[in-house]
Structures are given as structure tokens and as C-alpha cells.
Amino acid sequence: MVCATTVVNVTVIATEALSKRFPRVTALDRLSLDIGPGVTGLVGANGAGKSTMIKILLGLSPATEGRAAVLGFDVATDGAAIRESVGYMPEHDCLPPDVSATELVVHMARMSGLPPTAARERTADTLRHVGLYEERYRPIGGYSTGMKQRVKLAQALVHDPKLVLLDEPTNGLDPVGRDEMLNLIRRVYTEFGISVLVTSHLLGELERTCDHVVVIDGGKLLRSSSTSDFTQNTATLAVEVTDTDTHPDGTRALREALTAAGLSLHVGEEDGLPGAGHILLIEATGEETYDVVRDTVAELGLGLVRMEQRRHHIAEVFRAKDAEREAARDALTAGDGQAVPAQPGTAEFALQKGGGSDER
Amino acid sequence: MSADLTQIHNIGYRNYDGPRLGRAYARRSLYSQSLRGSYGLGRSAKSKILPMILFAVMCVPAAIMVAVAVATKSNDLPVEYTRYAIFTQALIALYLAAQAPQSVSRDLRFKTVPLYFSRPIERFDYVVAKYGAMASALFILTAAPLLVLYIGSLLAKMDFADQTKGFGQGLVSVALLSLLFGGLGLVMAALTPRRGFGVAAVIATLTITYGAVSTVQAIAFETGSSGAVQWLGLFSPITLIDGVQTAFLGATTSFPGSAGPSAGVGVVYLLVVLALILGSYAVLMRRYRKVGL
Hints:
The complex is a heterodimer of chains A (360) and B (293).
Chain A: H1 4-7, E1 13-21, E2 26-35, E3 39-43, H2 50-57, E4 65-70, E5 73-74, H3 79-84, E6 86-89, H4 101-111, H5 116-129, H6 145-157, E7 163-167, H7 175-190, E8 195-200, H8 203-209, E9 212-217, E10 220-226, H9 227-234, E11 236-241, H10 250-260, E12 265-266, E13 279-283, H11 287-300, E14 304-312, H12 314-319, H13 321-333, E15 351-352
Parallel strand pairs in A: 3-8, 3-9, 6-7, 7-8
Antiparallel strand pairs in A: 1-2, 1-4, 4-5, 9-10, 11-13, 11-14, 12-13, 14-15
Chain B: H1 3-9, H2 22-38, H3 46-71, H4 81-87, H5 89-109, H6 113-117, H7 123-155, H8 160-190, H9 195-222, H10 226-232, H11 237-248, H12 263-291
Helix pairs in contact in B: 2-7, 3-5, 3-7, 4-8, 5-7, 5-8, 5-9, 7-8, 7-12, 8-9, 8-11, 8-12, 9-10, 11-12
Protein name (chain B): Membrane protein
Keywords (chain B): Membrane, Transmembrane, Transmembrane helix
Transmembrane segments (chain B): 49-72, 84-101, 133-155, 167-191, 197-219, 263-284
């Protein structure tokens, strides 16, 4: 957190009514954002405009309309200055197989303007920080996907940027690799003091890593809020109980009892999944919800098969997008001139089982 | 950032406060990396073999000629400085076909280009560094045997002024050849991310055009239309160089009947060469505008 103290209250990325139109597609539509230091997640389905956004922020693609500034530099005029203090990790494979990680990263450090000696020192440091040790002298062609992702991250960090743009860094990784990469990204900010903009199509994995999450769809801002807001809204409790002689339909008995206790339940959310009829989804408002559920189940004398927290799926944010667009349009016509993030809670979330790797 | 704070976090990450040398430095670094790469330096042992063999094969005949000239106490080298590259054009074509795709197709094929363009360097820097490196590599390949000849001629105590003039003309000629061939080779390699296609395209362009031009020239000469010979030379890279050096650098042409271009037609040759060099640069700039990220 060395740098964090010096950049508090400074906007890292600011966009104002940023639009990018191609002949047939509108990639970004009047997007206004204000991103501060920290780890920010940029979430959207494929084609939502995430990569277009990154290109504009690097000053490589002019915006059709609107303005954007990175670290205080205007993307339209100061592209070179931005690229000197920003690191970029592409989504796709970008590593030549016949050179070693050390050779590639040293070369890229020099491309960022580091003198030869400094380039070698920083390369050794950076590769160690991302977790590459002896293997860094071997040709990249023999690396696993996880190691390649680390090399890609290292080349983005080697010149000690103030901000890194990571495009889908968990792509193609197994669950363990995903967790390691997410922890590494978290460390990039907490230990290295480098702000991070990370894109993903999985809200679940960004919730754990990011301080702030921005959701875009079809080039429009769907939602922008701190992760704590998300977690509050997304806490859903799944409860499954057994039937007893006293209560032949234990699930219904519990549903009635909980409704009487004043808890709100989601109905029919688990359709299509095994055991759908036997699982109750309860909106958790806080610690006390757990107590109420436990006590109610005990009173009824039912067997508690499971009680677990459910993660929410990004797709559900999109399912409610029509309503949100309506809201955004209203806000625009009201003269606000800014796509307003929809009210938390209007988007009803479906469930995501497991770590979210099923998305791909 | 106070010192004690830095101390605490020093076990982990260290920030970089040193100089950042900017675009010009990055361009030079890319140039030297590409130039070294053209001879396999800083790459695997396997990729050193071909360029090193070609380099040796280029120099050996020069060394033999020198040895013969010294032994026989000849007053002249058996070959003109300006003719050497024409005789060894197949080797030059082979070298270009192997190294031009290595230099640019690799970055395109493995999509390394975005890593460059997300840094301070611009399209101009990338193209100039790659073009410069390829032309320099060709220049080293073609000028080294001339240097061997020149040193040999001085050892054999040939006329110093004559030899220096010849050597200078030879250097100008191979410099022009390096720029022309380098540009054409890179354009063809940059248009094909597949390395094999790049190799084939370079070889085909250089050998087929030369074969066609010299055949048609021979036919034109035999059928008595000698005037056409000097114009036909405009259609292949190596005959272009031949024409330019015949007109301006005191070279003897390889055209049939020694019907090289006169100074007036030579201007056209020179203009075509310059247009091709600038055209190659323009095509490369255009090509990388599309690639970007």
C-alpha cells in the first residue's frame, strides 16, 4: 500500500459520455465512469465493449464522441504518456514460443524505456513476484497456461506502471489457477501499489478481488458500485430440509413458517436444477437471518440438509437489463446526461453453482 | 513516500524510480534486437545455423579470389566490387527469404505486436526499426565480402586510389540493394503471418522476376531489338540495381550485349528504386495500422 497513500482521492480513469461507433456496431454508448485507485472490475458479456474500452484508454483508438482521461492524461492527445505509465495484458496469447520468459520480459522492459541494467533487474524481480522461478530461463513454448498468464502479467508490470489493464486474465485457467491469478491481482494493488482495471465476464470471481465493480452491456453502463454493495445484495441463502411425519412436506412448512417470521423468499428460482422443488432461497439481510432459519427449522423439528450461501451470476444482471435501460433512458431525458447506475436490487440474480468455471 | 514506509514493504515489491528513456531509445532497442536476431544472436542455436552459413558462403569466394590475386601477383581483382552482389544474388535472396519472415511474421503470428503498441513506441518506430534492421543485416551480408576484397587488394599492393574508388562504389551499390531488397522482403513477410508463405513469396518474387526479365532480355537482344533490353531491366529488383550501378557507379552490366542503361535511362532506374523503397515503407505503415491491438 506504499503508493496508495499518495494517490488517494485521485481519479485513475475518468470517461465522460464516451462513445465508440463502428459502421455497423455501437461498441460504447455514452459511457461515463469515474474510477479511483484500487482494483476495479469491468464486467460484461463477450462483445459488451470491454476490449474497445481498453483500446481507447491506451490511446490507440480514437473515441467517436466524448472524452476519457487516464492518470490525468487525455487519451486523445497524450497517448504516449499514458502508455509509458500503464501496463497492458492482452486477452489472447501473445508470447513467442521460442524465447525464454526472461528474454521476452527484458525486451519488453526496454521497449518501455528502461535502461538495459534496470530492465534486467526489474525482470528478475517481476518474474519472482508473479511466481516464476527457475523455469524463466526455458523457452515459453513449454509453459503451462498458468505460467504463460504469469509471463503476460509480468510484462505488463515490469516497467512499474501506475495502472495495469488486465484483459480477461483468468481466461483458460483451471479453478486453482484462477484463484492464484486472482490473489496475484489483489497483491498487485495491496503490495505493489499499482491500480488495476481487470475485465471478466464472471461477476463471481471479481467480487472477491475487486474494490469496485463496473458492469457494462452493449456499450452501456449497467451498474457501477463498490463490491460491498454487491455482496450485500447478492447474499442469498439456499436451504434444504427433510420431511418428517409431523410435516409431510417439510419444504412447504418451512416456507410458511419463514414467511410468517418476516423473511423474503424467492420463488421457483431453481427450476430445472436437480432437487429444485426442495430448495428454498432466502434473502439474507444479515447475520440474524441465519439464526432465524436455524431456529425455525429446529422448532419445526425438520432435518437441515443444507444451508449455504449462493453466488450470483452476471447473466442475471443482463436479464434485468431492459428494465434498467428504461431507467437509464428516463434519466437521460430528464436531462441528467449520464447513464445512471440502476438501483441495486432491481436486478434479480440467478444462481451460480461452483466457482463459475462453467461459464466457458 | 517516506523512507520508513519503503523499508516495511521492501521485503516485497520495489518501485522503479530510475530513468525512462522514451521512444527513441525503445526504437534503438528494437532495431538492435532485430538486427541481432537476423544473425540468430540472442536466439536458439538452431536459428544461428542458416544465417551464419550464408554469411560464410558469401565471404569464402571473396577470400579465394583475394588469395589467387595475391599469389599470382595480379594487378587487378578478378571481379569488380559492384558485380559481386550480382553474382551472389541467389545467396542474398535465400538469406532474405529466411530472415524477413523471422523478423516480422513472427510478431504477427504470435500476436506479439500488441505488446509493442501498448508501449510508448508508435507504428512509425516499429516500422523504421524493423526496416532499418533488415536493411542493415543485408548490408552486413553484402558489404563484408567487399571488405575482404578491398583488404586483399591492398595486401596485394594494387593501386590504392582505384581500389578505394571501386570499393566505395560497391558500398553505395550494396547499400541501395539492401534497402530495396529489405523493403520488398519485409512487405511480403508482413502480409503473410505464416512463415512458410513468406519464405516462398520472397524467393518467388526475386527469382521469378529475374528469370523472366533476363529471358525476355535475351530474346529481345537476339531478335535485334536491343533498345528494349535496357527498359526490360526495370522489372526485376536485381536488374534494377544492375542498371543503377551501370549508369552511375561505373559498373559493367550483366545485361545481354552489355546494353546497360545510359545515364538518362539510369535516372528512371534510380527513380524506380527509390519509389520501391518508399513504397515498401508506405505499405508497411499501412499494414500495421490495421494490426494495432
